[in-house]
Structures are given as C-alpha cells and as structure tokens.
Input
Amino acid sequence: MKQDCILITGANGEIGHSLITKIYEQGNGNIVALDLSPLDSCLAECCCEFIQCNILDEAHLVEIFQDYHFTSIFHLASILSTRAEMNPLQAQKVNVQGTAILLELAAQQTLQMQYETKFIYPSSIAVYGFPTPEAKQQAGKVREDQALSPVTMYGINKLACENLGAYYGAHYRLLNEGKQAHHIDFRAIRFPGLISAITVPTGGTSDYGPEMLHHAAQGLPYNCFVRPDTRLPFMVMPDAVKSLLTLESAPRESLSQLIYNVTSFNPSAEQLAEITINAFPSANIHYSIHPARQIIVDSWPGDIDDSAARRDWGWTPDFDLEQAFQQYLIPQIHNRYHQGVTTVKVQE
Ligand SMILES: NC(=O)c1ccc[n+]([C@@H]2O[C@H](COP(=O)([O-])OP(=O)(O)OC[C@H]3O[C@@H](n4cnc5c(N)ncnc54)[C@H](O)[C@@H]3O)[C@@H](O)[C@H]2O)c1
Output
C-alpha cells in the first residue's frame, strides 16, 4: 500500500520555505519535497522525504509516483520572470513541459486510484498584458478573464499552464471511452508580487519591493529598477501561503472557476520607498530605471479584482499595507539582520 503524501515541487524556493513550514506546523509531516537544488537544512525535519530531481526528468518522476500516492500536489517549481526572459527556451521547457509532465502523472494516478488528485498551481499577474501604461491605468482592477495578452515568456508560460490544468481537469483523453470518469482537481491562484521577511527573492520582476526593504535593513544602498510612480499589487508571504491552503481545502462544489486572483495592497514604488525610509531612516534608495524591466512591469496590472476568491472560498488577506509592514515585514526583517539571524538566500 502506497503512503498518502503531499508533493511540493520547487520546495526550496521562497514559497516552498513558508508553505512547508506552515503545513508542518499544522501537523502534517507527510510532505515529499522535490527541487533541483538541495533542500535547505531547516526544512528537512518538516518533510518525510526530499528528492533532488529535475522536473523535466520524466523517468525519475514516474518512479516517484510508483512509491507514493499524492493526495495534493503543490507545483511550485518554475523559472521566474527575469530569468525566463534571459533564457526563454529553457523557461518554456521547465515552466510548461515540466508542468505538463506532472499533470500527466497526476492524471494517470487519478485514473488508477479513482481519487481526484488536487493539483494546486501558483500562477501570476504576469498572465495579464497591457500595451501601454495608459491602458494599464485605465483598466483599474482587472478580473480573471480580462487583458490576457502577456508580453513575457513567463506570462505566456503561466497562461499555457493554466490552460493545461483546465484540460487535465475537465477534458483529459476526451476520445478514450470510459476513461473520463475521474479528472484531476486543478486549482490555480494568480499571485501578485510576494514579499517575505525570511527569504530574499531572485529572478522576479516585482522583486524591487522586497529588495528595497532587505537592502535597507542591512544598511546597503538600493537602486530601484522601476519609476517611482510604478504600481503593482503585492501580498506578504503568510497571506500567499494562507491562500494556497485555503483554496486547497475548499469544497469543490463551492468553486465556480479554476483560476482565482488574490491580492492585498498595491502601493507605488515611491510609497514602498517612503515606508522603507520611515522604518530604516539610513536607507539609501535611488532610482536607476531598467527600461526593459519597466516595460514588463508597465504591462502588468496596477490592481486585480479578487472578488471571486472572496465569494467562493472566503478569501481575505490577514495583512493590509499598514499591517504587512508594521506587524510582519519591518519587525521580522529588522530582527533577522540585527539579531544575527541570517535571512535565507533562496538558491539561484
Ligand atoms: N514569488 C513571487 O512573487 C511569485 C509571484 C507569482 C507566482 N509565483 C510562482 O510561485 C511559484 C514559486 O515561486 P517562488 O517565489 O517560490 O520561486 P523560487 O524561484 O524562489 O523557487 C522556485 C524553485 O523551483 C526550483 N526549480 C527551478 N527549476 C527546476 C527544475 N527544472 N526542476 C525542479 N525544481 C526546479 C528552484 O530550484 C527553486 O527552488 C512559481 O511557480 C512562481 O512562478 C511566485
């Protein structure tokens, strides 16, 4: 009899760190963690097994599915937006092909076990695309079905994976008679930029928010790569983890769609700098605009409409802008750098 477990890919990343810790704190140690890079030692005790594996290594993944029965899969492994733009073909392989392999294995497991494997997928506001800052400004809060014209390889990959998930969730092997009785239970969240107090991001285009804070707390100067008036939606990591776990546990019948926006607050870069300087008065923040990264951020919405998540599965963030900085980010980041606790540098 196979052991029932939760599979978390990309386990060693920013979200992986917080998600694994939270699931473990809730009393579930049956986590199989998978990542290309070695698992941070602080996560080892939270998992029943760590498997160092490339998400593109299909043969290895088949073996893993022979050993375990995965009730839920959180598929976090990915190449993020900045890196994806530097190596689009590799991003397409890891982000889309890697997701397709995992969806196929989850679908086969579902057919064998007659149990609808939950497949939780973190998508992104990068699926949206506005041609100009004016169009972004005019759009206001964007719903899930609007402006789906991404300009980046990362956004294109995310949209493709959402569609793959919808296929495996509803139409898998349409022509195979008698095999359509059970589909995977695919659920996706479109995240805004995420800010964590315990990990420093690498490779994302919304990273100017967290980078500004972490630099200031360490007394390092920071050159913000977007204009002061740039606006994006953000959320803190505990809320991101809360949203993943709340969506995962929501009854299927309460979900009216497969893909949900979630958000908390949407400050401009200048507002983020002001809050940072108030918290760390010696902060040295300048603007050195990176034209290409600015185009990417200008194509993403300044705000998103998460009313469907609020209505269907009771989504509500614990932290608004004030609470996020005053209760979570500033005290925890301050303690990390001033009490000798090292912030976890997520593997590149
Ligand atoms: N952090 C954010 O602001 C944000 C926002 C929206 C969506 N997301 C999505 O959430 C997920 C997790 O994000 P994160 O911030 O933790 O990213 P991260 O870059 O910190 O972690 C990604 C992890 O995936 C692993 N990985 C990369 N390629 C792999 C491969 N070929 N095989 C196996 N593992 C591989 C990396 O080693 C890394 O540990 C990603 O899908 C990301 O697109 C993140």
Remarks:
- Residues 10, 12-16, 35-37, 54-56, 76-80, 94, 98, 122, 124, 191, 193-194, 201, 203-204, 206, 346-347 surround nicotinamide-adenine-dinucleotide (CB under 6 Å).
- The first helix runs from residue 14 to 25.
- Residues 37 and 231 are 33 Å apart (CA to CA).
- The chain has a mean pLDDT of 93.
